[in-house]
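Structural prep section.
Before we set up the soaks we want a predicted structure of the protein with iron/sulfur cluster in place, mainly to decide which crystallisation condition to try first. Input record follows.
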Amino acid sequence: MTSTAPKSPTVGLISLGCPKALVDSEQIVSRLRAEGYALVPEYGQADLVVVNTCGFIDSAKAESLETIGEALSENGKVLVTGCMGAKPEEITAIHPKVLGVTGPHQADAVLASVHQHLPRPHDPKVDLVPPGGLKLTPQHYAYLKISEGCNHKCSFCIIPDMRGKLRSRPLGMVLREAEQLVERGVSELLVISQDTSAYGVDLKYQQDFWAGQAWETRIHDLARALGQLDAWVRLHYVYPYPHVDRLIGLMNEGLILPYLDIPFQHGSQKVLKAMRRPAAAENTLERIQNWRRECPELVIRSTFIVGFPGETEDDFAELLDWLEEAQLDRVGCFKYSAVDGARANALPDPVPEEVKEERWHRFMQVQAEISSQRLKRRIGGEEPVVVDRLEGDTAIARSYGDAPEIDGVVIVENPGDVAIGDFIDVEITGTDQYDLFARRLD
Ligand code: SF4
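Run finished without errors. Recording the tokens verbatim:
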């Protein structure tokens, strides 16, 4: 008996430049080989060509551009990486037909582009993990991590010491993962990081390619691109920088959910400064009002810390006033507790435990009233909700305003024929402090 093994997809790689570029090329070919791609030496044998360029001096740039031109005319499917990729416009101006451009030391991004244009071979003997990786969340929603680390130095936090500076994942790679998740049945993508608004800063917002289009590695472009997938897109850990204003337009276009998770942590400028919070100097109340004017259904969730060292009764009163004015929808509150190694531990005037406790209760009381008033405004409205679980004759669902695990739920009695992960249209009929009650329409 004879059997014909399926042909492996083939990649040709041309490596120009110095030993550092060669090491990058070695990494790329090793990983391609490990994934089952075959490496070939001729343009004519390759399904796709990767050119690793050098941009050190003018003659090296000229050689790189000439090689890209040659690969395009001999093969046609060309990805460009390496030093010249740091300025993609210099390449695309001359060779607009290249499929994608990435900078130096970006093996992850190169692999993501290869997957996009020449799908990974599937080997059931070694492919025990589905594309997009194993997920521990229910099948209908998934977390999408867009970066690692953080450039801030909040005095109560040791994450930057543990995980280092911000390292954004290449945009094409994030989008490819999102696409795979949606293909696997995920209908809600929860975008997470330590600082979502800073996405792409470390990559200097470099250009990347996805779905035949050029995008900048920044949160606005990423959110707009994610909005083209058939899924709810929910943004977590956003800071109130001016450029976040542009995301509100995407909510109005229906591309991302009108929901923002912004960890404000306090309302007093003095305490925020002691916390060394990002965007501490921004006028957040004004910003929130503008967002709400532009997108009235916007739901904002946040977290706060009470009893931070040096927080006086006046500072706390300022926080309560801030809360009254901000009218946030969903809020979590923590009593400050020292984290080993955090700079805040050295701050003077610790707040006694019983004062923290008392402030926490006052905070929760004020916010409970605000949250319940905000929820009441939705009574009578008609909205789609997604079903998370079934309890007897009741569906426990979530609306656009409820992130899984951290926010409330929508309780739908007698929803009829429905399965976990289904979207159903409901009319909101009532609320309690945190949850909504609804009846199914249709
Ligand atoms: S708390 Fe501050 S330092 Fe820590 S991860 Fe968040 S933004 Fe970065």
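Observations: The radius of gyration is 25 Å.
Flagged for discussion at group meeting.
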